[in-house]
Sequence to fold (299 residues):
Amino acid sequence: MLSDGDGAGFEAWVEGKNSKIRLNEHQVRHQAGNDGGPPYTECFLETNDEPFRIKIQKSPSTHGQSDYRCRAYVDGTLLGPSVWRSENESMGWDHIYQKSGGEHFSVSLQFSPISDEVTLDLSKMKSIGNIELVLEKGAFRFKRRGRDSITDLVNGTADEKSKKGTIPEKTEESQVDYYTFIPSKRDKHFYRFVFKYRPRVVLVQTRIIDEPEIEDSATAPMIRPKRKRYSGVIDMVDTDEEKVKEEEEEEEDTKPNIKAKRIKYLEDQVRLLSSENKQLREGGSSIRDPVDLTFDEDD
Fold:
């Protein structure tokens, strides 16, 4: 999705972590901010079972102008990091760090599969699953160096079963830089991107995606393709059944010609009778031979 209006110059999307293919976006809309909040672009995101990456990128005209704090949320849970320096063209999130039993793990973000049989009602379907990016313009001041943050994603609504991470991979605890963010006084609340993620089956059921109805093959009419006739001689060995079908088709093909000749003959007879009728009214005689309508009886 692209930002719009005063916040133009950014693009955000969700892609497969390995394939780097962008997930389908539906009903992309640009909205004005509410209650003093920033304007935003929103869409419905069609999910799959592949680990995913959230990405945001500056346009060439925006690159290098300012620092931004870009906070990424999944169902209200903040992912890290959020420091987007002016010299960096893009940033992204594809994993979180978790801690268990004194050990550290890296977990890729992934939408878990959902059953094709959806049991949620319409109101719940519309409320599940949000990925949100919040952009703020400003500057960063180095604060300290410390341990990387630990993130625990909360479960989504009821049967949604989504975006829980993949199998954790053990990793070493890392050190990162922490900064103090100083927001711009003029653009404190800058721009937002909202992805309302849903499995395809939910998007179809809520009419976000219109799918054509598939006709049942058992009730669909059978259409026999027309036989091609070739002018050249082809040496072929046909079965008796195929020969009978061909003869029947040839016989059907001749019927229209016989019907046309019969109609022409009748039209000629009508014209001839009309001409004789006119001559008789004018005192002339018929040019046609008399027709004997009597018949002999057996003695």
Remarks:
- The chain has two domains: 5-205, 235-286.
- The helical segments are 122-127, 200-205, 240-281.
- The mean pLDDT is 74.
- DSSP finds three helices and 14 strands in the chain.
